[in-house]
Amino acid sequence: MLDCVRMKILLASIIIVGLLAFTACNSPRPVSPGRTVELFNGKDLTGWTHVLAEPNLPREAVWSVRDGLLVCKGTPLGVLKTERAFTNFRLIVEYRWAPGTKPGNNGILTRINGPARPLPRCIEVQLQHGNAGDVLGLQGMQLASGQPRYFEVMNHAVAGDIRGVRKTSDAERPGGEWNRVEVLAQGGTYSVWMNGTPINEAVGAEVRSGQIGLQSEGGEIHFRRVTLTPLAN
């Protein structure tokens, strides 16, 4: 009887060790602070997952890679997000609205957390044409009130409680031309540059680890670079 119990304990231990090893091998490996990573490799969507408002629609119907570009059709509403999570970082995104089309709406979502949904709880750096560079807290994500250019939209039908800080100036290029957005998230402060021009600083942002995401929200948009450098917490 004693030998049988020992054998069961040994087998259980082997199974647990095997499961832990499997989990470790299949979990995204953390990125060391200061080491820059290309979140989009220019070939495929390795390292990304997604949520769509139409869950039965395949990812390829909305996001695809074409000629080295990450192409988003813009409908239906959804988010393409990294498997890895980040708290403090420097993020560079290069994008353009599809040439020959009317510029639309999109956004860079950061510190994504909470339940999976097409428009998740996060801090967004707005890419909507005309408002590119605004910083928004969606689904109740915190930004400090009282700061310059602060605004609120409560109980939005899709985005929940919105707290935002508007950009100081418009540095976005015309539709069809490439734009470079740089986002520095350090603690509770978000700083944004558009095409080399500083256009926003928002303070009191909620500090937590979360994924990086690119929206599908309206209008075909192309990305050619999504580069992130983690910073020490």
CATH topology label: Jelly Rolls
**CATH homologous superfamily grouping:** Exo-inulinase, domain 1
> Regions with pLDDT < 50 over 5+ consecutive residues?
7-27
**How much strand?**
35-45%
Roughly how many Å apart are the termini? Answer: 53 Å
Tertiary shape: globular
Number of domains: 1
From N to C, what is the helix and strand string?
A: HEEEEEEEEEEEEEEEE
Number of helices: 1
The CATH class turns out to be Mainly Beta
Q: How many β-strands, per DSSP?
A: 16
* Rounded Rg: 20 Å
The percentage helix is 10-25%
Main beta sheet: strand number and arrangement? Answer: 8 strands, antiparallel
Mean pLDDT metric:
90
Category by helix and strand content: mainly beta
CATH-defined architecture: Sandwich
Provide structural commentary.
By secondary structure, the protein is mainly beta. It has one domain: Jelly Rolls. It contains 1 helix and 16 strands. The protein has one helix at 2-26, and strands spanning 37-38, 48-52, 63-66, 69-72, 78-86, 89-97, 107-113, 121-126, 135-138, 150-156, 160-165, 179-186, 189-194, 197-202, 210-216, 221-230. The strands form 2 sheets. Strands 1, 3, 4, 6, 12, 13, 14 and 16 form an 8-stranded antiparallel sheet that branches. It starts with a helix and ends with a strand.
